[in-house]
């Protein structure tokens, strides 16, 4: 039997969870504001080489950026900054991120080599905390979120249609995902104050729709009633990720009951937010990949 061991060094799970709990209790969950105040729009966090962070690292770096008003999307280790002849300013505090990987060990019960996962924490600084980096790390003022008015947007309609998920529109004034019949219901776009609000609400329900057994099967993997808050947390974080990818401002309508349930679950299980962020990332990637696959088919 293979025994899984996780090498976390300091308890990175507890460290990140405590930070998220603090943000939620303050009324500012980081996925509600993946941009910085009036200072601009930081977008998805990036590594020094331009690659995007994923999963829980997106959530925690959004949290740190929002608290400190950082506008740059780039995050570097101290060594990476030094290698570029740049310098972290004295007194600046680093942010924790998580590196996942595997290592091989000899199984004492057999002659086979066993692959085991690990999660290790390390520290990074935002480019706004570092002097001497190339200009592109700081960047120009980012584009403002699109003002779409109240008319449908052809590009966004094409994106959501490419997912293959059925969207039904009636005059019923509710947006929801119907799991049994597998469709998303939306009121007419004309009933929304803005098209951004319509598409942000649609993004939230589309994340829910990825839970179906024909897609990511969250409905079967997370079946306890206590997991209802988990699914809503996935949809909250996932819709923020998807909206940022589409140039939209996320729209949130979570109830106090969900927030209370999230806090209880976070305090009871330090890996709860890690699982939720991971599932949210999978859902976002699933929907974005659908459009990519359609574009490939059209080009073929």
TrEMBL record:
Family annotation (InterPro entries): Antirestriction_ArdC (IPR017113), ArdC_N (IPR013610), MPTase-PolyVal (IPR041459)
Highest taxon, organism lineage: Bacteria
Domain annotation Polyvalent protein metallopeptidase: ranges: 155-278
Alphabetical list of Pfam families matching this protein: ArdcN, MPTase-PolyVal
Domain (N-terminal): residue spans on this chain: 11-125
One annotated GO molecular function: single-stranded DNA binding
Protein name as it appears in the record: Antirestriction protein ArdC
Organism: Martelella radicis
